[in-house]
């Protein structure tokens, strides 16, 4: 029962911001749905990245936004690709090198990191900025994490529990793709 209460409390305390302007959850959800819908209409590519449990969310959302949302997505987790890039450039570049090679202006990078401080995620965001991509971040743990400062849209879950942060990130992204697919 305590887990459910912690999950509920964290849900109620989600912070959503755009250019340091804080929005209510419902407002941010609407804005994000619009971003993904416009990306679909313009055939911009979505890239989802994360490590560990966040990688699982990223892989899942790559498939769901493609199949259900009908968005153009690009998988970032091919084993041969990430091990090649990790070996040749270093683990901190496994996503940024892919962004450098394939991303185009106005594509969307969705960066998911519980801590918000993973170097490979930060590097990818910086590379996406150079390519003039839009960036949506999902982070947790400490309020001042690095990732939360870098997105066009930022969704922050105020919890130090991996399971809570990851569950909420997954739920929000699932909510967005379900909203998009309901309109199709």
Apparent shape: globular
The CATH architecture category equals 3-Layer(aba) Sandwich
* Total of domains: 1
Strand order of the largest sheet: 2-1-7-6-5-3-4
- Give a count of the beta strands, DSSP E runs of length 2 or more: 7
Structural class: alpha/beta
Characterise the protein shown here.
The protein has 184 residues and is of the alpha/beta class. The chain has a single domain, classed as Glucose-6-phosphate isomerase like protein, domain 1 (Rossmann fold, 3-Layer(aba) Sandwich), CATH 3.40.50.10490. The chain has 7 helices and 7 strands. The protein has helices at 2-12, 25-42, 53-67, 79-89, 96-102, 119-130, 162-183, and strands spanning 15-18, 21-23, 45-49, 72-73, 108-113, 134-139, 153-156. Helix 3 packs parallel to helix 7. It is globular and about 45 Å long. The mean pLDDT is 96.
């Amino acid at each position: 029962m305590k887990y459910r209460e912690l999950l509920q409390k964290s849900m109620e305390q989600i912070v959503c911001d755009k250019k340091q302007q804080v929005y209510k959850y419902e407002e941010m959800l609407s804005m994000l749905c619009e971003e993904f819908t416009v990306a679909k209409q313009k055939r911009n590519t979505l890239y989802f990245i994360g490590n560990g449990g966040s990688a699982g969310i990223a892989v899942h959302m790559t498939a769901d936004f493609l199949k259900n949302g009908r968005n153009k997505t690009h998988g970032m987790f091919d084993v041969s690709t990430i091990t090649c890039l990790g070996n040749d450039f270093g683990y901190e570049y496994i996503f940024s090198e892919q962004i450098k090679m394939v991303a185009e202006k106005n594509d969307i990078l969705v960066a998911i990191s519980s801590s918000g401080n993973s170097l490979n995620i930060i590097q990818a965001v910086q590379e996406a900025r150079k390519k003039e991509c839009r960036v949506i971040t999902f982070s947790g743990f400490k309020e001042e994490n690095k990732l939360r400062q870098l997105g066009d849209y930022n969704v922050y879950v105020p919890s130090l529990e991996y399971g809570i942060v990851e569950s909420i990130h997954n739920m929000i992204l699932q909510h967005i793709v379900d909203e998009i697919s309901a309109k199709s």
